From TrEMBL:
<keyword id="KW-0464">Manganese</keyword>
<dbReference type="Pfam" id="PF00481">
    <property type="entry name" value="PP2C"/>
</dbReference>
<keyword id="KW-0963">Cytoplasm</keyword>
<keyword id="KW-0832">Ubl conjugation</keyword>
<comment type="subunit">
    <text>Monomer. Interacts with PAK6. Interacts with the phosphorylated form of IKBKB/IKKB.</text>
</comment>
<dbReference type="InterPro" id="IPR000222">
    <property type="entry name" value="PP2C_BS"/>
</dbReference>
<protein>
    <recommendedName>
        <fullName>Protein phosphatase 1B</fullName>
        <ecNumber>3.1.3.16</ecNumber>
    </recommendedName>
</protein>
<dbReference type="GO" id="GO:0016020">
    <property type="term" value="C:membrane"/>
</dbReference>
<keyword id="KW-0472">Membrane</keyword>
<dbReference type="InterPro" id="IPR036457">
    <property type="entry name" value="PPM-type-like_dom_sf"/>
</dbReference>
<dbReference type="GO" id="GO:0030145">
    <property type="term" value="F:manganese ion binding"/>
</dbReference>
<comment type="similarity">
    <text>Belongs to the PP2C family.</text>
</comment>
<dbReference type="GO" id="GO:0000287">
    <property type="term" value="F:magnesium ion binding"/>
</dbReference>
<dbReference type="InterPro" id="IPR015655">
    <property type="entry name" value="PP2C"/>
</dbReference>
<dbReference type="InterPro" id="IPR012911">
    <property type="entry name" value="PP2C_C"/>
</dbReference>
<feature type="region of interest" description="Disordered">
    <location>
        <begin position="377"/>
        <end position="396"/>
    </location>
</feature>
<keyword id="KW-0519">Myristate</keyword>
Amino acid sequence: MGAFLDKPKMEKHNAHGEGNGLRYGLSSMQGWRVEMEDAHTAVIGLPHGLGQWSFFAVYDGHAGSQVARYCCEHLLEHITSNPDFRGGGGTGGGGKEGADCLEPTVESVKSGIRTGFLQIDDHMRTFLERRHGGDRSGSTAVGVMVSPRHLYFINCGDSRALLSRGGRVHFFTQDHKPSNPLERERIQNAGGSVMIQRVNGSLAVSRALGDFDYKCVHGKGPTEQLVSPEPEVCEIERSEAEDEFMVLACDGIWDVMANDELCNFVRSRLEVTDNLESVCNEIVDTCLYKGSRDNMSVVLVCFPGAPKISPEAVKREQELDKYLQTRVEEIFMMQCEDEGVPDLVQVMRTLATESIPNLPPGGELASKRSLVESVYRRLNPDQSDDTDSASTDDMW
C-alpha cells in the first residue's frame, strides 16, 4: 500500500530516556516509502498520580499519517482518564503499586485500555470528518503499559511487541490478520470477505484505529465491523530477576526478522554497547538491508536485568570488523585485477558465499553492510550512489 522512492531515505529520528528503573531508546526511518506514516510514544511517569508507571507505543499508519499522529498525541490520555481505568480503585491486583494513592486493579487497567481505544476511535471519526472532510487513513497500535508489578501488552493490528526474559522470547503479541479464523469470522459476519489475505481484497490488517470506510456496517457495534478498533490486552507479572528487555516495532521490522532473530540480535548488540539509540539504529538499518520496503520504527525498553557490555563480546566484534575490512580490501583488489573495478553488490555477493565467523546472530551479514560500504567507498570514492538503493536481497 503506497508508492516507493527511487532511493530509501535513511535519515533517522532518535530519542532516549530513563526512569522508573527503565531505559529506552528508539529509532524511526522512512525507508523506501514516499511518506513517513509511523509515530511513537514513550512516556516515563504517567498522569493522574501514576508517576511510577510508564507507557511505550508504536503506531503504523497506512493511507496517510493523520490517525497515527493523533493516536501518538492522545491515546494515552484517553486510556488513563476514562472511568473504567480507575474502576474499583483497587490496589493493582494484590498490593499497593504506587507511592501516593490507591491504583487501578489489573482488570480495571485492561478494561480502561479497551475503553480508551474505542473512545479515541469514535472521537477521531467525528474529529477527522470535521477537520479533513473524511480522512481515509488508519493505524495499527502496539504498546506496553508498565506498572511496578505488571506489564500490559496492548495490540491492535500487525505491529508487534515482545518480552525477552531469561535469555529467550518469553511473550509476543499476536498479529491481527484477516486470514486468522476469528478475524475472518467477524469480517464475514459483517458482510465482508477475505481475498488475497486482505479485508475485501484491500486492507492487510483486520484491527486498526481509523479506517472508517471499513466501519460503516449498520446494525453492528464498533467491535463487530469489518475492521475492529478493539485491542488485545495481555497482562504479565514482572520478574525482577529475569526480565531483560522489550521490543516494540511496526511490521516493517517483523516482515524481515522473526521474533527469535530480533531478540538474539538485540542481545548481541547490548553486549557491545549500552547506547540504546545505536542499537535501534542498527535494527532499522539491518532490516532495510534485509529487504524491508516499509517505514520502520522500533522502541527498545531495557530492564535492570538486560545484558551488559561484555569485554569478550567487544573483542569479538572488533576482530570481526577488522576481518571484514581486510576481506573487502582483498576482494576489491582481486576483482580489479581480474574483471575491473567491482561494484558494491559484487563485493557483498562474494562475502555472502563465505563462512564468516562471529556475525551478529539474527542480523548476519546484513548487519555489517554499512561497514562493508564504508570500506568500499574508501577504496572507490568515485563510485556513483546507485548502490545505496540496493538491499541485501539484491545481493544474493
